[in-house]
Amino acid sequence: MDLGIEGRRALVCASSKGLGRACALSLAREGAQVIMLARGREALEAAADDIRRQTGAQVTAVVADITTEAGRTATLAACPDPDILVTNAGGPKPGDFREWSRDDWIAALDANMITPIELIRATIDTMIERRWGRIVNITSAAVKMPIDILGLSNGARSGLTGFVAGLARQVAAHNVTINNLLPGPFATDRLVQTAARAASDSGRSVQDIMAEREQRVPARRFGDPAEFGDACAFLCSAQAGYMTGQNLVLDGGMYPGTL
Ligand code: NAP
Fold it and tell me: Is the CB of 67 under 6 A from ligand 1?
């Protein structure tokens, strides 16, 4: 299927590794011009080079911490008017809520709620003017099925989800869609980090924790980031124009509800 996004400008946040990188690659394969960003220059430039090599797409790399105002300003200077915006940032630290101070909560809200809202605020009006826009927020399956040690994520991402549920309906008439992609366990660095924390809390090995987690997934495997990237590219396609305000769970069947 031709997704109808050749030449569209796609700003993909937090994209030198993991799920963001996979989204950038899938969009580049479809002919989009991709603007990638991350804090670490080396991994970002390597990822951008690799995507250029694999796809021949025009790829711009911006070194920025997207959770800061300076980082967002630098990013938006490189791409002020994207047609496609994929919001993403690192997830909050795991732990027990008794350990978290007000500052921990503010940091989580900044990264996983306010940053995407600020990026949407800065870009949505030009999408509306052009009558074409696709916004995808990478959130977490924890929005539907909270994870005990990730309370900061459960809370902050639910705030974003509630906000965009309202906004999506306000902009749908302009052919601007806003959807959220909710990853379950995908094989990325982040998954290993959360397993390492669980291992140190329980005195078990990381391998043990990972094997047990994999067995809890009905698909009996972790997700491949490429599967996530392609789902994102579809949500950004011309064909997905009638799909908005949705929360799409990609979790190998872990969410146990009928709907
Ligand atoms: P990952 O493999 O650790 O990759 C994170 C990427 O984001 C890296 O490129 C990192 O580069 C970049 N990044 C992190 N903080 C940033 C910041 N402040 N500004 C700019 N770039 C930043 O993580 P992932 O697994 O792809 O996870 C992506 C998101 O999905 C996270 O919010 C995570 O919590 C969520 N999630 C993941 C899973 C999973 O199983 N993988 C499940 C549920 C939710 P730099 O460090 O160089 O900046």
Answer: yes
